[in-house]
Design goal:
The complex is a heterodimer of chains A (about 110) and B (about 210).
Chain A lengths: L1 H9 L13 H11 L1 E5 H8 L3 H13 L3 E8 L2 E8 L1 H20 L3
Antiparallel strand pairs in A: 1-3, 2-3
Chain B lengths: L6 H12 L4 H18 L6 H24 L2 E3 L1 H30 L5 H8 L1 H20 L3 H19 L3 H26 L17
The chains are: A alpha+beta (about 110), B mainly alpha (about 210).
């Protein structure tokens, strides 16, 4: 126990990862939305190869976190769902990447 | 995990998938083919007009064929601006070619640099078009544009030495690109059929 405690003291502080992003599916969604200005639901589904239900569920969580803006509108009488990262979402994703890199850099070889 | 996410690769795949329909290839081929055809008809000055038509066809076909099948995407604005610069450059190039062809048909008063360009017009046009393809490939991250650039250079450098009329090469190049574009379009339509329910699949309500 003493050894464990001394090892814990020696461990560098690890940044807390954003749990809203730190999930493979949501991370993939964030990454795909990060590289575009906005995308439709179908386009994002094609890119991430997720099922519609799965994608909807994860988008809802990201929307609740304030990272994704979901806009539903009718264009020429057809429903369109536009998805885009909010500024908060873009900043959060950049921070997440920095945090992950920091953790990875500190891991022993 | 995030380190393995290559954002550039994700962006490239987004561009590639959005342009896998072959429509950009078909539009380019229409522009090249019509310019070549107009040269045969001695109306090369009209080539620039068909560039506008080609772009209009592209926009309409994208909306009708592609978006209902794979959804829509709005790429980053800096890329849109780069795309606009490319379009303006291509249109200017064709207008310039039209002016050169018109001056040729008038038969006099041409500056020496223009005469030099005219005497080596195959090389000038080939390099210009190849550079445009490369620029498009770099901007839109569509790798096959580089292949088109190489094809263009090969054809026009060969044409410079073989001395066949310019329109032969434009029509040949346009035909090859058109065939490839049509093949891509057929494959795209078979891979992404429209939903039989009539929905665009873009309502975002699936699974809810």
């Amino acid at each position: 126990m003493k050894d464990n405690k001394s090892r814990d003291d020696e461990l560098p502080s690890i940044p807390k990862l954003d749990k809203a992003i730190h999930e493979p599916a949501r991370l993939m969604i964030m990454a795909h939305l990060f590289v575009v200005e906005s995308a439709g639901f179908l386009f994002l589904q094609r890119q991430t190869q997720m099922t519609p239900g799965n994608l909807s569920a994860h988008l809802s969580k990201l929307e609740d976190a304030g990272y994704v803006e979901i806009t539903k509108e009718f264009i020429e009488r057809k429903p369109h769902t536009a998805l885009a990262l909010t500024k908060k979402g873009r900043d959060a994703f950049k921070q997440y990447r920095r945090d992950i890199k920091q953790i990875a850099d500190r891991l022993p070889e | 995990m995030a380190e393995k996410i290559d954002l550039k690769e994700i962006e490239r795949k987004a561009y590639t998938s959005y342009h896998q329909d072959g429509l950009i290839d078909i539009s380019i081929s229409i522009i090249v083919l019509t310019f070549g055809t107009m040269m045969v008809l001695d109306m090369a000055w009209m080539g620039g007009i068909f560039a506008v038509i080609g772009i209009s066809i592209y926009a309409a076909a994208k909306k009708t064929l592609t978006v209902p099948r794979i959804g829509f995407v709005k790429f980053a604005s800096y890329r849109v601006k780069a795309m606009q610069a490319i379009v303006i450059e291509v249109l200017s190039l064709f207008m310039l070619l039209g002016v050169v062809a018109f001056m040729q048909s008038e038969g006099g008063g041409t500056p020496s640099w223009l005469l030099f360009a005219f005497e080596n017009h195959m090389l000038v046009i080939g390099v210009s078009v190849a550079v445009s393809f490369c620029a498009a490939g770099y901007t839109f991250r569509i790798r096959r544009m580089y292949a088109y650039a190489l094809l263009t250079l090969t054809m026009f450098v060969t044409g410079h030495f073989l001395n066949y009329p310019l329109h032969y090469y434009l029509i040949s190049l346009g035909t090859l690109i058109l065939l490839f574009g049509l093949a891509m379009l057929i494959r795209f339509i078979s891979r992404y059929p429209l939903s039989t329910t009539g929905s665009t699949g873009d309502s975002g309500n699936e699974g809810q």
